[in-house]
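Researcher: Here's the sequence for the chain we discussed earlier.
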Amino acid sequence: MAGQRGFTLLEVMVAVAILAIGVTAILRLQGQSASMAADSRFMTTAPLLAQKKMAELFEAGPGELFSGSGDFGPGYPGYTWSAEISEPPYSEILDEATRADLKQILLTVSFDGGTLAFQLKSLRFAPEEVAP
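Model: Thanks. This is the structure I predict for it:
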């Protein structure tokens, strides 16, 4: 049957291979796109949550300021925070009264068990006694 036209097995295999390469590339791009969207969402949400938590720490009285950790409730599932209260850097050059009242706060907001993290560092001056 010399007049019949069609594809050879080799042509079909080459076409399938090209299609497979194309589909693999598209799926890889889709995965990267989803990952980048999640990272973008975290990098937008984490600073706002960190500012909110830092404001709460600044509102606390001097005796109520302590290191700790927790979550942001059901509105932000997977987001957690931890705060470390420590001596400020170069505290040795401060006088004793200032050193006692000045604290460094390192606040870390994490997502998904720490796969993504955002840190916010601040100094807080909170004297125990306010002069009249």
